[in-house]
Every structure is written in structure tokens, then in C-alpha cells.
Design brief:
Radius of gyration: 22 Å
Number of helices: 11
Distance between the termini: 21 Å
Helix content: 25-40%
Number of strands: 24
Largest sheet: 8 strands, mixed
Shape: globular
């Protein structure tokens, strides 16, 4: 096992290997473990730092600075949507809230019928999901263990006759602390750093952290080298040390924003819709206040969900309902309140719950989602193209969320607008139709990024084929959430685990 951080890399580093993987999150880690177990020599490059449970003390300021892209302030170019994305060894699995779903059949059917993708169905993915669930301890969280924030969602749905269900989580020996989003201090969350990456390191993985991959060098239509620069962790600036890996096969697993950027910096942006049709699951959050304590900062962050509105019929955008952990920095980031209103919110935080309406983009034929391009300095620029159906979905989701909160006994529900409307009874609900919705009207954020290097049979409308191999560069693969042709309508981590588990067969055969 070789694990080197930026501080260890004081001189230029160069070596050859069988496979070089860019990114250590849900896709790269599972892939690395499978390839190393097969006896291949694998080098992994990760832009973020390497942290362990000794670093996870629940301090949100420290966690956002160390574990999130842009220190938690990354956003679309117009600042209308905050993008919460992990950036450390383990990627977003280090900071996600443990919710796991298999890819819904209706999404797999859509990929086949609309995008022509064959061979990716529940039958072919089933054995891979079975193995992932076993390795990561994915199991249903008991309804009886739901914290008050999740319990309110369940009770409200039952009172209204809406669908609701318990969630599956990738945890073993969970202490129910509620601080999954700042890194698990117990190593109970089976994030990649303590699961598949440990497996891969045991079988010989070389992992270099604090290394930003600048580009892949393509010669004669094949990847000849993967090039990167070592970052000084304290400043997040290049230290001057270069990394060059010469693999037989290269794999991009840098996520829906990172992988397109590597292709663009490598001059491969003209091949297929690189960076286009990137899906975000844009989220609307409505905080609510109760006379009794909620203490939503403790307990499993997500254990109940409702898919009552996931399919609203042709021509409409659906959404699903979950709740967030109620830590102060996260809540202030996810709500559109400032000054005295923010002070009031923080003072009432123990009595505050919240409902997330997570919209499902990418299923309407005219949606284009986000486009990822490069700024002059090579950093990502993300522009989201909103459609009228999204504005309608936000409005209806706000009304549904407020109705649900009132059904749980909330005394107040805030609409999330800059000048937030306060809902105190059903008589106030019609006022929500008088407000504007969409970018800059209320807070919007995303914790799920998908697409940007979509798979498909046509090189003109996709970046990789059904084996996740780049259409023009046969020894280059993309194995992460960027290959998804649409959003999922569920939390994406298990979909990516399963795709990577299966893709190991294709990558291994290419060496």
C-alpha cells in the first residue's frame, strides 16, 4: 500500500501503471478495489486531501473548508444555485447523508427507450448491487429510530394519505450523531475512505492526494499520460511539483463537474456533448418551526422519504421529499435569510425542522440542464438553463411542503424567499401562488450532480459507449455520475457504486 499526500510529494513524480484513476469517490473507489483485487497495478489521483475520523470533530467551519468543493461556497455562475460537492479522499461519500437507492426501473426504462442504452437494466445490475449492499452494510433504517425531523415527514405524509417509506443507509454501528455531513467520527458511515479504498490499498493501490489533474495527453488516439499538479493544502494553490502517470488505461472518476473539465482541458471537448446535459436535482427547502423541540441536528440525517410527487404526468417535473440535518452552517447556506432573520432562525434552531423538495431534471425532451465549461484559469463554470416547468414545479413543491409541515403541527413555515412569506395556517397557503419562483427568487441548492459525460450509442449525442469507454479514445473510460443520461429521482450514490462495480469488468478487459 502506498498513500502519499501533497506534503509527501516534494519532487516531481512520474511512473507507469496498468490503470490510472482520477478521483476517489463513489465511482473511482469501487473501481479501484475491483481492479486491485484482480492483480492490476492501479494509481489513483485525488484533488482533495486525505482525512480520517480523527479530523472529524463536527466543526462545520472546518469541515466545509476541508471536505467540500469551493469550501462549501461553490455555485452556478449566476450564484443562483449552491453546489454542495465533496472534495477529499472518498469524494462526496465522505460528507453525504448515507441515503442509498437502487436505480429506479422507470429511469432505466427511460434510458433504454429514449436514449437507446441497452444492457443497463435491473437484471444486469442486480448482482452488482447485491455485492455493494453486502460490502457497505446497506440496510433499511428502522422507522422507530427516526429523529423528530424525519418523524415529522412520516407523520405528515400519513396524515395526508401520501406515500412515505423508510430509507436504506450505508452504515455499520451508527452512533446516530447526525453529523454525517462533516465526516463520520466513528467510521460507522461506510464511506469510500474506510471501505473500498481500504480494500484497494490492501491489494496494492497507490493513492496520491492533493493532486489536481490538469489533463490527459492523447497521442495516436490513445491516452499516453495523465498529468497533474500538486496542491499546497493550506493555500489550495499549486506547489510547483508535477505528477505524470503513464497508464495502459485511464479512467476519469472526478464527478459530473470534474470529469468534463478534465476532458475540456485535454482538448477532447469537441467529441460529443462534453459538459452539457448536466443534471442537478435542484432543491427547494422550507424551514418550519414547532412549539416542541425538534433538535434536527441529532440523529440520522435522512431516514424517511416520500415519492408522492415523483411522477406528475407528461410535461411536468416531479420531485421527492426528504429532510436535511439541521446544523447551523448548512441551514444558513440552504435558506435565503440574512441579518436579523438569520439571527432569529439560529435562536430557534432547536425548534426548527425542514423539508427538502428535490426536483427531478432531465426527463423532459427540451431540458438542457446545466452546462459545464472552463473559466480562463481552467476552473469550472456551471450555467443552469431553467425551463418554465421548473418554475411551476418549485411553486407546487412549496405549497405541498408547507401543507405537509402544517399537517405535522408546525406553527410557522417560511417560504424561503428573500422576503420570506410566513405560513401559519391553511388559509395562508394561497399566498404562496402570489410569489415568484426560480433563480434569485429563493434559495436553491444541489447535493446531487449527474451527467455531463453521458453514455449512449451515438457519438454525436453521448461521450462514452455502453461500456463507459470514450467514443474516440479506446483506452479512456469515464466511471462516475457524469455518465448518467438523466437525473435519477433518487439519491445517486448506490447507482454510481453499482455502475462502477460492473464497469470494472470492461476496464479490466481493456488493460
Amino acid at each position: 500500500m502506498t498513500l502519499l499526500s501533497g506534503a509527501d510529494l516534494t519532487a516531481d513524480y512520474e511512473r507507469s501503471c496498468d490503470v490510472c484513476i482520477v478521483g476517489s469517490g463513489a465511482g473511482g473507489a469501487v473501481l479501484a478495489a475491483r481492479l486491485c483485487a484482480a492483480g492490476l497495478d492501479v494509481v489513483m489521483l485525488e484533488e482533495g486531501g486525505h482525512y480520517t475520523r480523527r479530523d472529524f470533530d463536527g466543526d462545520e467551519v472546518r469541515a466545509f473548508s476541508q471536505l467540500y468543493q469551493g469550501r462549501g461556497a461553490f455555485a452556478t455562475a449566476d450564484l443562483a444555485m449552491t453546489i454542495l460537492q465533496g472534495r477529499s479522499v472518498g469524494g462526496s461519500t465522505t460528507v453525504n447523508w448515507t441515503t442509498c437507492y437502487r436505480t429506479p426501473d422507470r429511469i432505466l426504462d427511460h434510458w433504454r427507450s429514449v436514449h437507446g442504452i441497452e444492457g443497463w437494466d435491473a437484471t444486469s445490475l442486480g448482482p452488482h448491487w447485491d455485492e455493494v449492499e453486502r460490502r457497505l452494510g446497506i440496510a433499511e433504517w428502522p422507522e422507530s429510530a427516526a429523529n423528530a425531523n424525519n418523524r415529522a415527514l412520516l407523520d405528515g405524509c400519513r396524515a395526508l394519505g401520501w406515500e412515505a417509506h423508510s430509507l436504506k443507509r450505508n452504515v455499520v454501528g451508527c452512533g446516530n450523531s447526525g453529523y454525517c455531513g462533516t465526516g463520520c467520527p466513528l467510521d460507522a458511515k461506510q464511506a469510500m475512505g474506510i471501505s473500498y479504498l481500504k480494500d484497494a490499498q490492501r491489494d496494492g493501490l497507490t493513492l496520491l492526494s492533493d493532486v489536481r489533474v490538469t489533463d490527459v495527453v492523447v497521442e495516436a488516439n490513445r491516452v499516453a499520460a495523465v498529468q497533474g499538479e500538486v496542491l499546497d493544502r493550506s493555500s489550495d494553490r499549486p506547489s510547483g511539483v508535477r505528477v505524470v502517470v503513464q497508464p495502459k488505461v485511464a479512467v476519469l472518476s472526478a464527478g459530473a463537474i470534474g470529469s468534463p473539465c478534465v476532458l475540456l482541458r485535454s482538448g477532447l471537448g469537441e467529441h460529443g456533448p462534453v459538459g452539457r446535459r448536466t443534471w442537478m436535482h435542484p432543491v427547494l427547502a422550507l424551514p418550519s418551526f414547532y412549539a416542541h423541540p425538534i433538535n434536527g441536528f441529532y440523529g440520522a440525517p435522512q431516514s424517511i422519504a416520500s415519492h408522492q410527487f415523483i411522477d406528475r404526468g407528461p410535461g411536468a417535473i416531479g420531485w421527492f421529499l426528504e429532510v436535511p440535518p439541521m446544523q447551523p452552517v448548512l441551514i444558513s447556506t440552504g435558506t435565503n435569510v440574512f441579518g436579523g432573520d438569520l439571527q432569529q432562525l439560529m435562536g430557534r434552531l432547536p425548534h426548527c425542522g425542514s423539508i427538502l423538495a428535490i426536483t427531478v431534471d432531465g426527463l423532459l425532451p427540451h431540458e438542457t440542464g446545466a452546462t459545464v465549461t472552463l473559466r480562463k484559469d481552467g476552473r469550472p463554470k456551471v450555467v443552469y438553463d431553467w425551463v418554465p416547468e421548473h418554475i411551476e414545479a418549485f411553486q407546487e413543491a412549496a405549497i405541498a411542503s408547507a401543507t405537509l409541515a402544517l399537517a405535522t403541527g408546525a406553527d410557522e413555515v417560511w417560504s424561503g424567499h428573500l422576503d420570506s412569506l410566513v405560513i401559519r395556517s391553511e388559509a395562508d397557503l394561497p399566498k404562496l401562488r402570489e410569489r415568484k419562483y426560480g433563480p434569485h427568487e429563493h434559495r436553491i441548492f444541489t447535493a446531487h450532480q449527474m451527467g455531463g459525460c453521458a453514455m449512449g450509442p451515438d457519438p454525436a449525442s453521448s461521450v462514452v459507449d455502453s461500456q463507459l469507454r470514450h467514443h474516440q479514445v479506446p483506452n479512456l473510460f469515464v466511471v462516475d455520475g457524469s455518465v448518467l443520461p438523466t437525473a435519477l429521482g433518487v439519491n445517486p450514490s448506490q447507482t454510481i457504486y453499482g455502475i462502477a462495480h460492473r464497469a470494472s469488468e470492461f476496464v479490466g478487459e481493456a488493460v
